[in-house]
Amino acid sequence: MNHPHHHKHKRKLGITKKQETLLVRFLDRSLTFMGILTSVAVVPQIIKIYSERDASTLSITTWSFFLIYALLFFLYGLIHKEKPIITIYFLQILTLLPVVYGILVYG
Fold first, then answer.
1. CA-CA 20 to 30 A from 55: which of 29, 48, 73, 102?
2. Domains of the chain and CATH, by start
3. CA distances from 74 to 40, 57, 64 (A)
4. pTM of the complete model beyond 0.90
5. Predicted local confidence at residue 1, as pLDDT
6. Which of 70, 58, 69 is nearest to 99 (CA)?
7. What is the pLDDT of residues 84-100, one digit of tens each?
């Protein structure tokens, strides 16, 4: 349910329907790109863990919470049939699992 002053606020800002659509499209694409980039950013950590066979400086708590967060959002995306959320968090799960496993093995 929208806030009762939702439309009044938009008029005050002078946002047209077309501008709102462009903004939403820009945010959708930007967040999808950043979500994918975030997954790619974990790859060097994976390489470091397995090449050095050492994860003693990493926190199992922190990385486990990242993984749980990604799993919950992945399930949320499935339930709501939101392909960008499903894609982003599936990729995050794929990169977070090896980190958590590496911490358990080499930590």
1. 73
2. 30-106 (1.20.1280.290)
3. 17, 28, 15
4. no
5. 47
6. 58
7. 899 999 999 999 999 99
Q: Is residue 52 within 8 Å of residue 88, measured between CB atoms?
A: no
Tokens 């339930």 correspond to 79
The 3-state DSSP composition of the chain as helix, strand, coil percent (nearest 5) reads: 85, 0, 15
Map 57-95 to HEC letters.
CCCHHHHHHHHHHHHHHHHHHHHHCCHHHHHHHHHHHHH
In tens, the pLDDT along 48-75 reads 999 999 999 999 999 999 999 999 999 9
The four Cα atoms 29, 34, 37, 39 give a dihedral, to 10 degrees, of -110
Give the span between the Cα atoms of 60 and 87, in whole angstroms. 25
Q: Using 50, 70 and 90 to split pLDDT, how confident is the model at 10?
A: low
